[in-house]
Amino acid sequence: MPIKIPDQLPARAVLESENIFVMTEYRAIHQDIRPLKLLILNLMPTKEQTEVQLLRKLSNTPLQIEVEFLRTISHESKNASAEHLESFYVSLDDVKSKRYDGMIITGAPVENLNFEEVDYWDELCDIMEWTRTNVHNTFHICWGAQAGLYYHYGIQKYPLPKKLSGVYRHKALKPNSPFFRGFDDEFYAPHSRYTEVLAEDILRHPELELLAISDEAGVYAVKSVDNRRIFVTGHPEYDPDTLAQEYFRDLKKGLNTDVPENYFENDDPKLKPVCLWRSAAQLLYSNWLNYYVYQTTPYEISKVGLTQCELD
To answer: For residues 174 and 211, is the Cβ–Cβ distance under 8 A?
Structure first.
């Protein structure tokens, strides 16, 4: 089934070249079924690359998904054109009265700042507060996961001795959880961050459930007990060469960055990367859409965010 996106979004050409079924707005309006409404808050500096990465993962399900992109207006993007943002992105004011089946809040390269020092922190808090009543399930990625855990539950982040960069082995603590349905006993996922959240902080919080960890990378997946929020500290959406791009970019900046672990052939950055996480990442996003959005969201979009008492 297709993913529905704006007719002129540049990501469309990339996805279609990979034989991914995308549906234009014109074609979608002739169908009677209700698509899932998904909002993506894209905080990554490489906006168009992240659009492609996420749409690629969201497209491989038997669901029709209608995607909108959200931006913060209190931060001026240096890597995306104003024309692109004006054409394909909305602000919180534009969507305040709308309701969504699902939402993704991406990572951002601001981990070394305290949350309150991030120039769009107040606006992000407004957005996360708005998701309580207007979004059925929100998926938080990397720094977005740390920000969500801090805002909603007061979970702190802690600096790492050095940047965590590489592809790491993980295990599901709740293998019967729908989030990890179909997963192998161990799976790989990429990480790229300077900070972490601690398992003991998650386990002490009664509203949170720790789903997966890594001996090397620590906490990986957390969800709220009410199934309204998912937090993933890695970057399952990353392309095979994304960590390499970040590594060489850091070297050009003069940063003393280690070679990403378990990533290049023979750990040699002159050789190509080996992608060990593609299938697990695809399954992760499919499971999220299926079990935490599609199967539990109200059919009437106007009822999204209502409590069971309000629905009754």
So the answer is: yes
Is 291 exposed, middle or buried (CB count within 10 Å of its CB: 0-12, 13-18, 19+)? middle
Annotated active-site residue 237? The verdict is yes
Nearest alpha carbon to residue 120 among 77, 67, 68: 77
| Identified catalytic residue from 66, 68, 209, 237 | 237
**Whether residue 83 lies in the annotated active site:** no
Catalytic site residue from 136, 152, 205, 235: 235
What is the signed CA dihedral for 290, 38, 306, 288, rounded to 10 degrees?
A: 30
Regions of the chain with pLDDT less than 70: 1-3, 19-33, 308-312
Counting Cα atoms < 13 Å in the Cβ hemisphere of 156 gives 5
In this prediction, residue 5 carries a pLDDT of 73
* Token pair recorded at residue 27: 């074609």
How far is the C-alpha of 31 from the C-alpha of 63, rounded, in Å? 13
Under DSSP, the state recorded for 120 is T
In order of start, what are the domains of the chain with their CATH numbers? 3-159+194-238+284-304 (3.40.50.880)
Q: Which of 111, 140, 142, 191 is the catalytic position?
A: 142
In this prediction, residue 261 carries a pLDDT of: 97
Alpha helices in the chain (DSSP H): 11-17, 25-28, 47-58, 82-88, 92-95, 121-134, 143-153, 199-203, 242-252, 278-287, 308-311
Q: Is 170 a known active-site residue?
A: no
pLDDT of 54 reads 96
Contact by Cβ (8 Å): 172, 183: yes
142 φ/ψ sector (left φ>0, alpha ψ -120 to 50, else beta) = left
Residues linked to residue 100 through DSSP beta bridges, in sequence order? 135
Residue 242 and residue 9: Cα distance in Å, rounded? Answer: 21
